[in-house]
């Protein structure tokens, strides 16, 4: 079972920080999922929300702040005091730390970030990356800009056939459905298309075991350290 550390090892360290990514490496995750927004001055930044309030001591939209100000924010204290002053990572420093060490799933959260991400990736040829998005228009524009780039369709749509049709049209390398949408007809359809399935977000070993029985290739988990004991790495 391939384990993507969801926002890093986010059960143990503040999500989408270098601390969470280092922890994911330590516990033997096979890959790391992270979220990308763009600063006001066009720098790809690793953060999940459009706004700063939940995971930093800043306020307002990420897209309204310049990178210099964003880099002064504390993205760790909200999680636990020992992570005080953990910064919001840029995508560039994240790639510098992780490229070539494990697979990275970059979830592009806004359409204006797509081009900046593709440009930055050109400087990291050793990176094993998959770009994903809920936004089909964004994925289609990424496919046009970079015909060989591995793309994955993210879906929380109960109509999984629509997501599957999109994955096929995009020559997607994987389908990333919300875990409760996975069922046997979906798995059979993906098998016919030779499309690996990676559901999110799965922390309970019993749920991961059930999904493994259905044939998923891996899962996104906040707790890769917890699941690793039950599921050996396919890359080991
Ligand atoms: O990529 C899987 C998952 O991260 C998608 O949802 O909201 O956690 O970014 P979200
Ligand atoms: Ca995500």
Characterization of the model:
It contains 9 helices and 8 strands. It is of the alpha/beta class. Strands 1, 2, 3, 4, 5, 6, 7 and 8 form an 8-stranded mixed β-sheet that branches. Helix 5 links the parallel strand 5 (129-133) and strand 6. Helix 6 packs parallel to helix 7 (184-193). The model has no long low-confidence stretch (mean pLDDT 97). The protein binds SN-glycerol-3-phosphate and calcium ion (CA).
Give the SSE map.
Blueprint: E1 2-6, H1 18-26, E2 31-38, E3 44-46, H2 67-70, H3 91-98, E4 103-108, H4 114-121, E5 129-133, H5 136-145, E6 151-155, H6 160-169, E7 174-177, H7 184-193, H8 205-214, E8 218-221, H9 224-228
Parallel strand pairs: 1-2, 1-8, 2-4, 4-5, 5-6, 6-7
Antiparallel strand pairs: 2-3
Q: What can be said about this structure in brief?
A:
By secondary structure, this protein is an alpha/beta fold. The protein is built from 9 helices and 8 strands. Strands 1, 2, 3, 4, 5, 6, 7 and 8 form an 8-stranded mixed sheet that branches.
Q: What is the chain-wise order of helices and strands?
A: EHEEHHEHEHEHEHHEH
Largest sheet report: 8 strands, mixed
Which architecture would the CATH scheme give at its second level? Alpha-Beta Barrel
The kinds of small molecule bound in this structure are: SN-glycerol-3-phosphate, calcium ion
Q: What is the β-strand count?
A: 8
> What would CATH call the homologous superfamily?
Phosphatidylinositol (PI) phosphodiesterase
CATH hierarchy class name: Alpha Beta
